[in-house]
Design a protein that fits this description.
The chain has about 300 residues and is α+β, with helices and mostly antiparallel strands. It is built from 10 helices and 9 strands. It has a 4-stranded mixed beta sheet, with helices on one face. A 3-stranded antiparallel beta sheet has the order 2-6-5, with no helix packed on it. A hairpin with a 7-residue loop joins strand 5 and strand 6.
Length: about 300
């Protein structure tokens, strides 16, 4: 079995990396994320570069995962996986689900809002009219959307497919954030010393980090398989596992990094807080697992 990226997959990921570098590099983009901002310049540059032109679903998921791993604040990965380009012009995107409680990621800054309303979609060009910004510590700009105030084109029969794609890209972003959080924790353990030794030499900590890495890698490959098959049940299964991984990783990695994990300078908070926010978007792992077993699609 070949786990290497194909040439086209490598090209799409490299194209996204190139745009991030061209717009000021990862450090500039990460600084926006560190204060839960939105990188409109990067979003625009990715769209103008056509970083996903001709990409299939798996390639779009790989790019969404990569952007999450870099820690940037853009809706480009979300747009690519839900495949909205034929419905709305370029710009920041927020996707809400009628009946789902809580604020919506990027709704505070989005140019467009899409509401999944049962089996239909409501696509709104101006996403600022019916939103109320809220303060959040989950690493993204959030707002509450007044669904009854959204006025846009109603598209029949697309709701279920969009709901599944939204679940898929959320799980992919968990995979990317988890990988980045583990890499940052591992780098910390290689240099942080206690009792005259680096933390990375303590076997108990090595085992804990190894277990976290296994969970994160399993999440990554379950999401990729789901993107390859595009089967709703595979997507639900990947989402269920991703939610459990996020719930386990956040307290574990924060504890291993100690008080430093709470500081803005260290940067781990960008990934851990996003993991918590994305997990809550997916819903409780027990509910997700029950729907997988029942053969239902996550709603």
């Amino acid at each position: 079995m070949d786990y290497d990226f194909s040439v086209p997959q490598q090209r799409f990921i490299a194209a996204a990396d190139h745009v991030v570098d061209a717009v000021g590099g990862v450090e500039r983009a990460f600084a926006v994320s560190a204060v839960a901002g939105y990188d409109r310049d990067l979003d625009r540059a990715l769209a103008e570069a056509g970083a996903l032109d001709g990409a299939d679903l798996l390639e779009r998921v790989l790019v969404a995962e990569r952007l999450a791993e870099l820690g940037v604040a853009t809706t480009y990965g979300l747009r690519g996986v839900v495949d909205i380009d034929d419905l709305l012009p370029p710009g920041g995107l927020a996707v809400a689900v009628r009946g789902r409680q809580g604020p919506v990621r990027y709704a505070a800054v989005a140019d467009h809002v899409v509401l999944i309303d049962g089996d239909d979609l409501i696509a709104v060009n101006d996403g600022t009219k019916s939103v109320t910004k809220v303060r959040s510590g989950f690493g993204y700009p959030y707002a509450r959307i007044a669904a009854e105030g959204l006025d846009g084109a109603r598209l029949k029969g697309l709701g279920e497919a969009w709901r599944s794609r939204l679940t898929l890209v959320t799980a992919a972003e968990i995979a990317g954030n988890a990988a980045a959080a583990i890499a940052r924790t591992a780098a910390h353990m290689r240099v942080r010393e206690q009792f005259g030794r680096t933390l990375s030499t303590f076997q108990a900590l090595r085992h804990r980090l190894a277990e976290a890495a296994v969970s994160a890698e399993a999440t990554r490959w379950m999401v990729r398989e789901a993107a390859f098959t595009a089967d709703p049940r595979d997507i639900d299964l990947a989402a269920s596992y991703a939610a459990q991984t996020a719930a386990q990783l956040v307290p574990e990695l924060v504890q291993m990094c100690g008080a430093r994990s709470f500081t803005l300078e260290f940067g781990l908070h960008v990934f851990t807080m996003r993991l918590d926010g994305l997990r809550l978007e997916l819903g409780g792992p027990d509910r997700l697992a029950a729907r997988v077993l029942a053969g239902e699609t996550v709603r």
